[in-house]
């Protein structure tokens, strides 16, 4: 008689969740005490440890020495110097010319003006509140507030409306009110797939909260098009551009650039085997340079705290 074959492979976890949470909290406190900037702190199940991403800078030396005394001691991953931004994709040259109405899909290029010229971000999702329509995007997009936003270019018919409501603290999001009747609302993500070199279109049918690691999610951004990756950490804390973001999600190997800020985060729905159905997850906020990881904000915050619903 043959022995049962082992299909599962268990690895001993040396650190308990209680220990990891303790190290995580102490690390965040030390990061504030030592005034560390541009970092990412997360609990990553793959390593059964707290992972710290930060710049290889002499001023971080004392912070590193201090956190190495914690038990368990976090894993520290030093970042390379930030590379010059490369323009991968310009969705503005791919606008659908046959439409009488101006379409703003998830990931569309949205622009506003500042003293130095044009600032570009990406549209997140269409939202609705008190019978008024909004685009939710990253709150840090405009330098001046309030600010007018346009889709693709500064033409009257491309005006979306003003961003006169935003949050730029722990919850980085802004709401652009639609005032232009030429703008057509669609719960659709339509962007270019840089790998397969084709347009992909997804219909948003619901929303999904990310509660565990290993989930596959994607971003639609105006520069990089559609890019995907697997969640490796949830409920992380990130600090960059003098802002501390709490309850973020880390996704490595997902190519994103500055103008992708505010872009739609989504995951495949798979309803009835349909490949073009997706659930909204959140919006792209930013990341620590060199990590190949991003930070997103859960849409659950929109529903619970601000009572704003996806437009259907």
TrEMBL record:
TM region positions? 281-304
Q: What are the entry keywords? A: Membrane, Transmembrane, Transmembrane helix
Q: Which domain of life is it from?
A: Eukaryota
Concerning InterPro entries, the annotation shows: Peptidase_S1_PA (IPR009003), Peptidase_S1_PA_chymotrypsin (IPR043504)
**SUPFAM superfamilies in UniProt:** Trypsin-like serine proteases
What is the designated name of this protein? Peptidase S1 domain-containing protein
User: What is the organism of origin for this protein?
Assistant: Gigaspora rosea
């Amino acid at each position: 008689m043959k022995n049962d074959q082992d299909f599962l492979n268990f690895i001993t976890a040396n650190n308990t969740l209680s220990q990891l949470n303790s190290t995580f909290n102490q690390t965040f406190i030390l990061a504030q005490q030592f005034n560390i900037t541009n970092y990412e702190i997360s609990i990553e199940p793959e390593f059964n440890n707290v992972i710290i991403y930060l710049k290889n800078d002499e001023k971080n030396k004392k912070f590193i020495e201090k956190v190495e005394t914690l038990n368990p001691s976090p894993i520290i991953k030093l970042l390379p110097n930030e590379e010059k931004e490369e323009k991968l994709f310009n969705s503005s040259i791919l606008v659908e010319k046959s439409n009488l109405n101006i379409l703003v899909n998830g990931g569309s290029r949205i622009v506003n003006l500042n003293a130095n010229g044009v600032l570009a971000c990406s549209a997140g999702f269409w939202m609705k509140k008190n019978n008024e329509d909004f685009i939710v995007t990253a709150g840090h997009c405009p330098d001046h507030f309030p600010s007018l936003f346009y889709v693709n270019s500064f033409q009257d018919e491309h005006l979306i409306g003003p961003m006169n409501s935003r949050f730029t603290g722990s919850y980085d999001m802004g709401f652009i009110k639609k005032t232009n009747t030429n703008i057509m609302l669609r719960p659709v993500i339509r962007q270019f797939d840089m790998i397969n070199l084709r347009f992909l279109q997804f219909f948003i049918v619901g929303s999904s909260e990310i509660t565990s690691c290993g989930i596959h999610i994607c971003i639609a951004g105006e520069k990089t098009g559609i890019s995907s990756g697997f969640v490796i950490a949830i409920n992380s804390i990130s600090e960059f551009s003098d802002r501390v973001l709490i309850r973020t999600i880390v996704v490595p190997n997902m190519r994103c650039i500055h103008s992708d800020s505010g872009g739609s985060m989504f995951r495949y729905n798979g309803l009835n085997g349909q490949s073009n159905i997706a659930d909204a997850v959140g919006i792209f906020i930013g990341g620590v340079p060199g990590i190949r990881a991003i930070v997103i904000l859960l849409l659950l915050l929109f529903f619970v705290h601000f009572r704003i619903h996806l437009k259907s």
